[in-house]
UniProtKB/TrEMBL annotation:
PROSITE patterns noted in UniProt: PROKAR_LIPOPROTEIN, TAT
The organism of origin for this protein: Adlercreutzia shanghongiae
Residue ranges annotated for the FAD-dependent oxidoreductase 2 FAD-binding domain, each copy included: 59-497
Protein name, entry field: Flavocytochrome c
UniProt KW Oxidoreductase keyword: yes
Keyword set includes Amino-acid biosynthesis: no
């Protein structure tokens, strides 16, 4: 039965009620989808037939991080007329600021190093980190397509860190049972986003910055046919800026990332994550696109699972430089409880278990190492930033951090025996053959305290990246990839899998969006 201004179909009513319930659960009851009657009474409405479009395209990609750029490249390569918008005044989103390492199964780098890996092992590592709450089929898809996607990134111009022989190399990442993470270099994720954006430019598609999505536009059947945006929006305010309506005759792809910087929204999901908990994300990581999706009938999943990055410094704001040193250069260094001077965790476990162990102590923990035990670079930047300090003895370090000196000296000595024997008798941390003991001055210390990093929650999607409604049916004309899509990683994302997820699913979303029929 067709809806009119006088009547509302039962299906429309049920779908609207379900979406309204979802919004209420997210703490967003004021954003509930309107009935047809309400839409027609509203001044702006969200039905395509009521709008005068300001701009036209076939595929509209929202967001310019890994997922958005990959989606735009694939959609354009498939022959679609593509428009890509970005709410911030710079290209790349969080991806441009990320460490950028990439988990890849069956890579040429693993082959060169003689490392045997498998799809099953990769998937199992993701499931363990995610407490088996993951979308297992999505995890398998990511693992299966990881190598071809890494090779594709190279074809697009992405660059990776190199060893002394000028070759990409593997880096040990917490939670991975097998070495499969390809290391990114100085510049991090921008070594991927910059060349991908440049490749788009060569294809005639420029990222249009300072354009913020505020609402998805649907036709009478519920198909998404475009979006309302605000050009020049200020401070993530959806009421600021110039309103525009963009028609997407094939599809809209959401690659808008997470909501880690949206304090009110994230506290509605997890009240513990208040303003005392810092965040690694850029300022644009807010929830307006998720709200718009749910208002259009999308199912939101796992929004209260929010990952904390454990090896961050409370002595700097945002992402800073800490992780490039603490997790990059000093990844094998012991993490000590300030009160006891004892280790608290396998420092190469997954991020949730590491962060939970630090939080359990109730105060920042201390990481201590020395020059000979470090890998790569990053120390000097950490010293210059004031988060890492140099000491001539372990006793001096203990005094500086108000720790029991005898306990610290004893614990470091015990840890050094584990390094010598290549067996961690306390926490079973894997110790590589080239690991070095912490026994030569100068010593270096840094405080560690977790920060909000990655949102596990977002809109529910299928293997083709269609956004699903409350009945688990695709919302026609709407796709999502990357952090905007929820449920993929379960309770906690395994480190270095975000790059893989975003690029794999961004490509899939772009390919399928370009294949949608024109409305």
């Amino acid at each position: 039965m067709k809806e009119t201004t006088e009547t509302v179909s039962r299906r429309s009513f049920v779908a609207g009620a379900a979406a309204a319930g979802a919004l209420a659960a997210l703490g967003l009851s004021g954003c509930a989808p309107k009935s047809t009657q309400e839409k027609e009474l509203a001044a702006s409405g969200n039905q395509g037939s009521e709008l005068n479009w300001d701009e036209e395209c076939e595929v509209l990609v929202v967001g310019s991080g890994y997922a958005g750029l990959a989606a735009a490249l694939e959609a354009k390569s498939a022959g679609a007329d593509v428009k890509i918008i970005e709410k911030m005044n710079r290209i790349g989103g969080n991806s441009a600021f990320a460490a950028g390492d990439m988990a890849v199964c069956g890579s040429s780098v693993q082959e060169r190093e003689g490392i045997s890996d498998s799809i099953d092992a990769f998937v199992e590592d993701m499931l363990i980190a995610g407490l088996y709450l993951n979308d297992k089929d999505k995890c398998r898809l990511i693992a299966e397509k990881s190598n071809e996607t890494w090779e594709w990134s190279n074809e697009m111009g992405a660059t990776w860190d190199q060893d002394e022989n000028g070759e990409p190399y593997l880096y040990p990442y917490g939670g991975h049972s097998i070495m499969r993470t390809i290391c990114q270099g100085v510049g991090g994720g921008s070594n991927v986003t910059t060349p991908l954006a440049a490749k788009l430019g060569e294809m005639g598609v420029e990222v249009e910055t300072e354009r913020m999505l505020t609402e998805l536009v649907q036709d009478e059947s519920g198909r998404v046919v475009g979006a309302k945006v605000r050009e020049g929006a200020i401070d993530n305010d959806p009421e600021s800026g110039k309103p525009l309506a963009i028609h997407a005759s094939r599809a809209v792809v959401l690659a808008t990332g997470g909501f880690g910087r949206d304090l009110e929204f994230r506290m509605a999901q997890d009240p513990r994550l208040n303003d005392t908990v810092d965040c690694t994300n850029q300022e644009g990581a807010t929830a307006e696109s998720l709200k718009a999706s749910v208002a259009a009938g999308a199912m939101a999943v796992h929004t209260d699972w929010i990952q904390l990055l454990p090896f961050m410094s409370p002595d700097e704001q945002g992402y800073g430089v800490a992780a490039f040193y603490t997790d990059g250069q000093a990844s094998y260094a012991p993490t000590l409880c300030k009160a006891t001077g004892k280790r608290i965790v396998n420092e190469l476990t997954d991020r949730k278990r590491y962060a939970d162990a630090i939080l359990e102590t109730g105060e920042p923990c201390i990481q201590i190492t020395c020059n000979k035990a470090l890998y790569g670079t990053g120390l000097q930047n950490a010293i210059d930033a004031g988060i890492t300090h140099e000491f001539s003895t372990l006793e001096e370090a203990a005094e500086f951090y108000d720790m029991p000196a005898d306990a610290v000296v004893e614990e470091i000595a015990r840890y050094n025996t584990f390094v010598k024997d290549k067996v961690d008798a306390d926490f079973e941390k894997p110790i590589p053959d080239d690991a070095q003991p912490i026994d030569e001055a100068p010593y270096y210390g840094v405080r560690l305290w977790p920060k909000v990093h990655h949102c596990m929650g977002g809109v529910k999607t299928d293997l083709d990246c269609h956004v699903l409604d409350m009945n688990l049916s695709p919302i026609l004309g709407l796709f999502a990839a990357g952090e905007a899509a929820g449920g993929v990683h379960g309770a906690c994302r395994l480190g270095s899998c975000a790059t893989t997820d975003c690029l794999v699913n961004g490509r899939i979303a772009g390919q399928n969006a370009a294949a949608e029929p024109i409305d």
